[in-house]
Specification:
By secondary structure, the chain is an all-alpha fold. The chain folds into two domains: about 45 residues, no CATH class; about 45 residues, no CATH class. Helices cover about 80% and strands about 0% of the residues. It has five helices and no strands. The N and C termini lie far apart (about 55 Å). This is DNA-binding protein H-NS-like N-terminal domain-containing protein. InterPro entries: H-NS-like_N.
Length: about 90
């Protein structure tokens, strides 16, 4: 029986930090370190509906993790002594 990417993602979420989830994350990291050409070549071997589902799932993760970047930037800016008002003034002037 074949699982869709979405079904696989739900199962992996339920597994928390199991070896399977860790290995899947490592596999995705390794894929991400490949050249664009190799990624495109591999993606051409995946059925289009599955590929679309994967892209959708990745976009969901990207959207959910935007807050991490904002929090990190805010902390870095605060550590450098830049206030929220200073940042607002700068952004409004651009």
């Amino acid at each position: 029986m074949s699982m869709t990417t979405y079904e696989m993602a739900r199962v992996l979420e339920q597994l928390e930090d199991t070896p399977e989830k860790i290995m899947f994350g490592k596999l995705l990291s390794e894929l991400g370190s490949q050249s664009g050409e190799r990624i495109r070549s591999a993606a051409k071997q995946v059925p289009l509906p599955v590929l679309r589902d994967m892209v959708y799932q990745f976009q969901q993760v990207i959207d959910s993790r935007k807050g991490e970047l904002v929090e990190s930037l805010a902390k870095e800016i605060a550590e450098q002594g830049i206030s929220v008002d200073d940042l607002k003034t700068y952004l409004e002037s651009k």
